[in-house]
Amino acid sequence: MIREASFNNRVAILATMHQKERVIAPIFEQELGLRVVVPPDFDTDIFGTFTRETPRPGNQIEAVRFKAEKALDVTGENIAIASEGSFAPHPILPYISSNREIVILIDKEQDIEIIGEEISTETNHSHLVVDNAEQALKFAKKVGFPKHGLVVMCEESPKDRDNVFKGIVTEEKLVESVNFVVSESPARKAHVETDMRAMYNPTRMKNIAKATHNLVKKINSLCPKCSFPGFDITRRIPGLPCELCGLPTPLTKTVVYQCQKCGFTQEKSFVDGRKSADPGQCMYCNP
User: pTM score, two decimals?
Assistant: First the structure.
């Protein structure tokens, strides 16, 4: 049997420059006894920026893994934590914007890689093209300014950082930035958007905390056969019966857990406590 993983009193390097330790570190320290340290001068902007002047390398999972591996390389430590966020239409509710947060833990000593996730519709992710500062101030009120920061730039996809004004949290700075960009822009317009970096976006920070809790939950989920952490759902099988006609629906009936170490699998049905589906989800009752 593989021995149960241990994290107590060990050091983990958190790959961030955006103060994510404020929500991530307490969770790991309280739940696992893992001491979280942020390396000095660690530039995560090289792995992509929300303002698009630096593209993200690969997909979201690849990018978060790159961050963690880089943190291990520069510090020589054995454990790294990193997170990566994205904003897109919700996978089930495509007309609603969603925030997907990924938090990864890599432990080279114990050969562990586990990923936590949170997909939430709670986000203020938004943008607006304005002609003047008054329009920008109206937009700001709708997105939680000044607790949530803003970004002002000449165009939606800037080519360099000199054209981007980030971390705006005062009306004075917002007005100044918009007036400057409008005066310099050939179209006499400014692109204003929410600053989605964690330290300027409390709503996103809450979702990072939820993803971290999900990661810790997975770490504490041990394989029944070998006790390796991260015994998690790898497949969902549809077929939850309609409560009216009893026919199978597209909703999940059974989930399959699998150990990433020994490969042991286990099926569980009705994991969320629901044994039937609403007729509105049935292709027969609601074609």
Answer: 0.90
Residue 282 φ/ψ region, left for φ over 0, alpha for ψ in the -120 to 50 degree band, beta for the rest: beta
pLDDT band at 1 (very low <50, low <70, confident <90, very high): very low
CB 267 within 8 A of CB 254: yes
Say which residue the tokens 């019966």 belong to.
241
Spatial contact of 203 and 239, defined as CB atoms under 8 Å apart:
no
What separation in angstroms does the CA of 179 have from each of 159, 165, 191, 256? 20, 12, 11, 56
Helices (H), the chain: 21-32, 60-75, 133-142, 171-184, 202-219
pLDDT, tens only, 252-275:
999 999 999 999 999 999 988 889
Angle at which helix 133-142 crosses helix 171-184, to 10 degrees, equals 130
Using CA atoms, how far residue 284 sits from 67, 247, 250, in Å, is 47, 8, 11
Q: Backbone phi, then psi, for 272, in 5-degree steps?
A: -95, 10
- CA 272 to each of CA 196, 211, 269: distance values in angstroms, whole numbers, following the listed order: 32, 19, 9
Give the domain 11-123+201-220 fold: Maf protein (3.90.950)
127-195: CATH topology: Dna Ligase; domain 1 (3.30.1490)
CA distance 226 to 164: 51
Average pLDDT of the chain, as a whole number: 93
